[in-house]
Specification:
The chain has 145 residues and is an alpha+beta fold. Helices cover 36% and strands 38% of the residues. Strand 7 and strand 8 (132-138) form a beta hairpin. It is rod-shaped, with a radius of gyration of 28 Å.
């Protein structure tokens, strides 16, 4: 019994158990990592939708709307306030009220373009992963109306 060649049933079951546990841990780790990357992408999409929703609310409460000639700023005039949306370094879009301070309204932005045609406004956002988002709306309240 001292000179046995080969595996016994007990040693085979032990090796199989260790292999099964190792594979289970590897698959669990990979699925968690994959879900983390998926969540990061969806957060950007949710942030863009929230930005469009908030901008729409601001637009609907404004009397006038205009864009800068280089299409890098959206300017809304609401009561006695001037609200400006513009890109800022690094990869952010900020909101200024009367040129004082700022609020970060969107992050991870590679490029943003504002287009104004009369009462119509459109915004195109390209995120850092190259995905493009587009939104358009119109001004409801016009000055003097």
């Amino acid at each position: 019994m001292k000179n046995q060649d080969g595996f016994t049933l007990l040693s085979m079951m032990l090796a199989l158990s260790i292999l099964t546990i190792t594979l289970f841990l590897a698959v669990s780790t990979l699925s968690v990592m994959g879900k983390q990357f998926e969540d990061n992408a969806s957060i950007t999409h949710k942030d863009v939708r929230l930005f469009f929703s908030q901008t729409s609310r601001e637009l609907h409460l404004s009397q006038t709307v205009s864009c800068s000639p280089n299409h890098r700023q959206l300017i809304l005039n609401k009561n006695n306030e001037q609200i400006v949306f513009q890109p800022s370094y690094p990869q952010r879009v900020i909101r200024l009220v009367n040129g004082l301070g700022y609020e970060i309204v969107l992050q991870h932005v590679k490029n943003i373009q504002f287009q104004c045609t009369g009462a119509f406004v459109s915004i195109q956002v390209i995120d850092t992963q190259g995905r493009s988002y587009y939104w358009s709306d119109r001004l409801y309240l016009e000055k003097g109306g």
